[in-house]
Structure prediction request, 218 residues.
Amino acid sequence: MTGLPVLLTRLGLDEPHIPLVREALTHRSMAGETSYERLEFLGDRALGLVAALRLMADMPSADEGTLSLRHTALVRWQTCAAVGEAWHIWPLVRHALPAKDVTEAVRARIVADVVEALLGVVIQVRGMDAVVALMRRDWPMVGDAHSGKDAKTALQELLQARKLAVPEYTVVDATGPDHARRFVVEMTCPLGHSRGEGASKAQASLSAAENFMESMTL
Prediction:
């Protein structure tokens, strides 16, 4: 797999760890092979804890609300997907999905899942300190420009300060059964537009605002 040695070096792993890394790169569409889902479960938990430790160290005077907002920004799937793109993960992902089904959104979700699975490998092989170092090196400290406000509030205040119209949020897609709906919301404002996804209209709207604010500050 082209690029695998580079990924191993980035993660501080060696040749004996290739089977675990291979599992972390395997989508469930690969029939008869172990997918990344168990490692993703572990990596997701590790990411949440390490993000909290980082924030406690980097923001000693922040209150719980501010820490929660920053934590959400660090662990959200969009951030993991951005990290995965920087790691050039997609060419290494093993999947059997039809090309027509691999949309940009599907690819980004899979890359985010694989990043969490790779963190699961790292914590098993090298321990918590290695995950802390990896996050500090490769995860952006996103959201610092919003002074602790949620992105929708920060965006609205930004527009009002410039005497511009408030943003509009429109549901452009809704998929899945009633108990597991996924909404896509588009935000439009005089400064531009963005989209977000979530399990509710409110979550998707917040995600759209976060994506827009991040695009302005990163």
